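Standup notes, structure subgroup. Blocker cleared on the magnesium ion input:
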Amino acid sequence: MANERILLVEDEKLIRWSLANRLSKEGFQVVEADRGGDALKVMEDQEVDLVLLDYRLPDMDGLSVLRKLGDSHRNMPVIMMTAYSTVESAIEAMKLGAFDYLNKPFEIDELLVTIQKALETTALKRELGRFRREQERQFGFQSLVGRNPRMTEIFSLMRKMAISSASTILLQGENGTGKDLIAHAIHYASDRAKKPFMDITCSSLPEDFLQREILGHEKGTFEDVPAGKKGILEMADGGTVLFDEIGQMGLGLQGKILRFIEEKTFKRVGGTDDIRSDLRIIAASHTPLAEAVKRGDFREDLYQRLKVIPVQIPPLRERPEDIPLLVNHFIDQFNREFKKDARGVTQGALKILMEYPFPGNVRELRNLVERIMILEAKEVIDVDDLPSEILGQAPATPSQTTFLLPPGGVILENVERSLLEQALKRTGGNQTRAARLLGLTRDTLRYRLKKYDLG
Ligand SMILES: Nc1ncnc2c1ncn2[C@@H]1O[C@H](COP(=O)(O)OP(=O)(O)OP(=O)(O)O)[C@@H](O)[C@H]1O
Ligand SMILES: [Mg+2]
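Run returned:
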């Protein structure tokens, strides 16, 4: 550690000189001041990493300097030095945000250790702040894109939820519709943002391991971890826990989670004590929980508890108007990540994307944009950059259409029925878009659906 700049505020020349001398030898840059006013002036003009501040100064006392620094340089580490120590002054200094308080005369080594600690702590704090800001940029509500009315309604409901005292939220929607992203956004927009966000996918572990992960276990319960271990419920205290694929949670654990939601306490595996934890629980499922309840795989009472605030995120095929926004959003993201300079998508390519049903939802669209941007160096993404599985879904223009008649012939009505069925399936039953896929008007499509008893 070297080259950090230390401002040394000390009016006694001899002490100042010897400290400055030693600190320079240790590799620090030292700026000296003998008055509080001078010190504040230095702070205005120069970048300083740490302040060593004498308690008694000729023009003002050290505490006033500390107070002023607290206003202008909130995260500046300050170490107070004094020959007239009283408990009250020490307490006052610490309250005003001093990092530490040394009594004169002190060993210079003691001072060096304290400086080291102060610099490290400040660097860590700064790093943590940067990390939090980055998390917020990545996961805050500003990262959620969409203009479909159902989506914007969900976003605004979730914003309200985030700052409310609601303790449970249920997010349902197909794979890749954004459940994780919304759960993160809720956490980072809430007053729990500085506490942990933890998630666990309930389908990823056998039931007994899942219990251990979630509830933790008492010392001596399991041979593989004899010391015992805190579970997620304990570690995330004050924050948010996301139970992903909660439908896969076993009935036994469901009972414990229900009890936790109702009483805010739980027991570790093998433990008898009730442990208290303050959490917001977000439950997510890509299959409708109501069906799991009907099958007897999910507790009705827990379902009722969770669905106080139910959110159903529509699949991407039901909100094609979000596709252009999402495409641009992902292009921006990957431009940054890959240092590229793609600018957008042609109308033709966009039209095809908006008609494609995206069974993998937003995740599939994101992967697609990523793949194209890795493989193609073009500024504007065009139809021929789209992979064949997507082009294959686009309506064929008449000139491209040559269906080969099999040698044994076909029953035309069966072909027509099959194509109608496929178009409906691909568009999730959206007749307007199904009609477009088949080159029909909506009325003609309706007529044909009726003819085949499909409507
Ligand atoms: N509205 C949105 N705006 C921006 N990005 C989105 C949006 N919805 C989803 N994404 C992105 O799509 C990808 C998939 O989203 P996410 O992981 O949240 O889906 P999920 O519903 O949790 O899926 P799964 O059920 O498979 O866990 C992520 O990269 C996410 O950032
Ligand atoms: Mg997910």
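Discussed briefly. Residues 356 and 393 are 6 Å apart (CA to CA).
Next: hand off to the docking folks.
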